[in-house]
Every structure is written in C-alpha cells, then in structure tokens.
Design a protein that fits this description.
mainly alpha; elongated
C-alpha cells in the first residue's frame, strides 16, 4: 500500500490497515478510535469541528468512532497538521524577533556591540526609530 496513514491522536503509523476502514479500527499504540471525524479528510479543524461534507450528519463527539457514510481517512494527516502548526509558531516567533520553539538556531545575542548594527533593520524597526525621533524619545 503506497498510502501511509497515521493515528490522529499520537501520530504513530497505522500498519496493516485494511480499507475501507472498519468502525472498530483503533491505534495499537494509544488505542484511540480511528474511524473518527478528526481522521477524516472532510474534517474542518477551524475550532468548531465542522464537516466540509454538506450531506454528512452532525457528529457530537469528533474523537469517538462513528457511522458516517462519508468518512474518508486522511493520508499523512498528523504530519501535515504538525508541519502547519510548527510553521505558524515559527512565523509568530519571527514576528517578535524571537527564536522559534523547536528550532536549531541559537538564541539571538542581546545588544552586543557591533553585531546588532551590522544587521539591516526591519521595516518595523525603522518605523519605531522614526516614531522615537519624531517624539524626541
């Protein structure tokens, strides 16, 4: 099988998975149900847990096995979610000039003479300096 499925909860690869996936399928590592909304390609992870399939019935518990006829397991679901989360965290940290969590980069040096002046200023730093010059501070 060329498709690699991962547990939606722990991320472990689901070995010897038979498709179509049974409602009783579970992860051998964490014993989480796998025929769940969070494992489906139609799951909308926007915070409300909506389904992108218009004809699907409402499922109240997105982490429990269900009988949805539109269920289609997501390939590499856990990897894509983790990558998107890590990228968002890195962009957020970069916005504030910090080292992103789980980064291999060293922490930026605090106000070392010469090194900070060698780096070009960002647009935000230039705007801040212009504001300080304007206000005399």
């Amino acid at each position: 099988m060329s498709e690699q499925f991962h547990c939606w909860q722990c991320g472990k690869a689901l070995e010897a998975l038979i498709l179509p996936m049974s409602r009783r399928e579970e992860c051998i590592a964490c014993h989480a149900d796998q025929h769940v909304c969070k494992m489906c390609v139609f799951f909308n992870d926007s915070g409300r847990g909506d389904c992108r399939e218009d004809r699907a019935e409402w499922i109240s518990d997105r982490e429990r096995a269900n009988f949805c006829d539109y269920f289609k397991p997501a390939v590499g679901h856990m990897d894509n979610k983790n990558m998107a989360n890590a990228q968002a965290m890195a962009e957020f940290a970069e916005l504030f000039g910090e080292v992103p969590p789980f980064s291999n980069k060293a922490a930026p040096e605090k106000a070392e003479s010469g090194k900070a002046a060698d780096r070009p200023k960002t647009a935000a730093q230039i705007a801040e300096q212009q504001l300080r010059d304007l206000l005399g501070g």
